[in-house]
Automatic annotation (TrEMBL):
Catalyzes the conversion of (8S)-3',8-cyclo-7,8-dihydroguanosine 5'-triphosphate to cyclic pyranopterin monophosphate (cPMP). This is Cyclic pyranopterin monophosphate synthase. The gene is moaC. It catalyses: (8S)-3',8-cyclo-7,8-dihydroguanosine 5'-triphosphate = cyclic pyranopterin phosphate + diphosphate. Its EC number is 4.6.1.17. Residues 26-159 form the Molybdopterin cofactor biosynthesis C (MoaC) domain. Transmembrane segments: none annotated. InterPro entries: MoaC, MoaC_bact/euk, MoaC_sf, MoCo_biosynth_MoaA/MoaC, Mopterin_CF_biosynth-C_dom. It comes from Gordonia hankookensis.
Length: 167
């Protein structure tokens, strides 16, 4: 196994979750300023036009698919620190999970906010991923080939590095 020390050339500008010996560590954010932070993530749930029709007509066997997926995404954002190693526990001020329905897919978007010392990118990404997995669980009886893909950060604001937006 190769270890990369923080700040070494192999790690570019340095990996904040790696100490000088190459061991994983949780970043100390105690000295950072509290700022308003927001992150938006997205992903695409792919299924069939037939499933989209059943969903739109409220005829899927497991009930209100979008409401269930929305709640799952919100709950996941709130518990990201329990799912992703080295993530900080955050007091989230807002979590929104939205769905845009198309002919053969659903675009999932999560927007997460906090006022704190570290960002909420992982919380937004986790919300999208879990909402998509929940959609899969809700439709698997009628479409086993459904998939969730393209989970990615779309934008973030706040913190020392400021704002960023995917082009």
């Amino acid at each position: 196994m190769t270890r990369v020390a923080a700040g070494s050339e192999a790690s570019g500008a340095g990996l904040s979750h790696i100490d000088s010996t190459g061991a994983a560590r949780m970043v100390d954010v105690g000295g950072k300023s509290r700022t308003d932070r927001r992150a938006v993530a997205g992903g695409t749930f792919r299924t069939t036009t037939e499933v989209i029709g059943l969903l739109s007509d409220g005829k899927l066997p497991k009930g209100d698919v979008l409401a269930t997926a929305r709640i799952a995404g919100i709950m996941a954002a709130k518990r990201t620190d329990e799912l992703i190693p080295l993530c900080h526990q955050l007091a989230l001020s807002s979590v929104e999970v939205e769905f845009a329905i198309a002919d053969d897919h659903i675009d999932v978007t999560a927007t997460v906010g906090t006022s704190g010392q570290t960002g909420v990118e992982m919380e937004a990404l986790t919300a999208v991923a879990v909402a998509g997995l929940t959609l899969h669980d809700m439709v698997k009886a009628v479409d086993r080939r459904a998939s969730m893909d393209g989970v990615r950060l779309l934008e973030k604001t706040g913190g020392k590095s400021g704002s960023w937006r995917r082009e």
